């Protein structure tokens, strides 16, 4: 196996790990949304008293991380196809 073939295989493994991370992040966002819905049910008239502000920030951070992972994944795949 040539060095280029080894590099392509390594990049494929990186892409697989990035895809897995994306799946975990999507699961995390769904869990945060479920947690928020459960909290809102505690006081539907005043959800701001039961939903911590950090919950929305966490969702925003996960969303940004998902976008970064997609960008990195695209870059890795593009690089691999050019080899």
- Element order, helices and strands? HH
Which blocks of ≥5 consecutive residues have pLDDT under 50?
none
Outline type: rod-shaped
User: Considering DSSP H and I runs of 4 or more, what fraction of the residues is helical?
Assistant: over 70%
Radius of gyration from CA coordinates:
19 Å
Number of helices: 2
- The secondary structure category is mainly alpha
Biggest sheet layout: none
Q: Span from first to last CA?
A: 14 Å
The percentage of residues in β strands lies in: under 5%
Tell how many strands the DSSP assignment holds.
0
Mean pLDDT: 96
Notes on the structure:
There is one protein chain. The chain has 83 residues and is mainly α. It is 84% helix and 0% strand. The chain is built from 2 helices and no strands. It has helices spanning 3-42, 53-82. The longest helix is centred in the first third of the chain and has 40 residues, at 3-42. The radius of gyration is 19 Å and the shape is rod-shaped. The relative contact order is 0.16.
Key structural traits:
83 residues; mainly alpha; 2 helices; rod-shaped
List the helices and strands and how they pair.
Blueprint: H1 3-42, H2 53-82
Helix pairs in contact: 1-2
Compact overview of the structure:
The chain is mostly helical and 83 residues long. It has two helices and no strands.
């Amino acid at each position: 196996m040539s060095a280029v073939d080894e590099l392509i295989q390594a990049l494929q493994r990186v892409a697989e790990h990035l895809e897995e991370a994306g799946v975990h992040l999507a699961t995390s966002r769904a869990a945060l949304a479920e947690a928020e819905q459960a909290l809102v049910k505690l006081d539907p008239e005043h959800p701001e008293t039961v939903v911590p502000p950090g919950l929305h920030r966490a969702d925003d951070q996960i969303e940004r991380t998902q976008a970064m992972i997609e960008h990195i994944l695209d870059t890795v795949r593009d690089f691999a196809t050019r080899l």
